[in-house]
Amino acid sequence: MPPLPPVSALPPSSSLPSYKPEEAASNYGLELTLPPVLSKQEGIERVMANLTSVLESASEDIKKNKEEICRRLDAMKKMWDEDILKPEIHQRLLTLSDALKGGDGVLADQIHIGLMVDHVSLCSPWMAGVRYLIHHVKNQTQACETGEEES
């Protein structure tokens, strides 16, 4: 394998082509629909509303940990408000919370894993609270599927 060229031999990043997802999608005859852009405050309000909604609909076994879950969600909100969390984390949390509210525990779990892999130091203080909710939604989904199979 040939050695890599020295950094000085690489073209400046401004001369590299930029990746535009909407162009890539249109090359395949697809239309990319981007989520609406929310302000930082609108984003955290929607995330907290979604997660609170899931928590309130939870069974008693989750509610016994409600105080701990709320404490962790408050830590997430504080980090969001103090601009500690990156915009990429904001977007992923919006998608994760929408998935949970919509009952898609599998998607929420995939997003959770991605956040923990990519941003472990920022997410670990509060992610356990979100994880409780993901387990709740996944268990609900499995119970519904099991109930349908028995019918």
TrEMBL record:
Gene3D superfamilies: Functional domain of the splicing factor Prp18
UniProt xrefs under InterPro entries: SRA1/Sec31, Steroid_recept_RNA_1
Boundaries of every SRA1/Sec31 domain copy: 9-140
Highest taxon of the lineage: Eukaryota
Ranges for region Disordered: 1-22
PANTHER family listed in its UniProt record: STEROID RECEPTOR RNA ACTIVATOR 1 (PTHR18834)
Full protein name: SRA1/Sec31 domain-containing protein
Organism: Timema podura (Walking stick)
Lineage of the organism: Eukaryota, Metazoa, Ecdysozoa, Arthropoda, Hexapoda
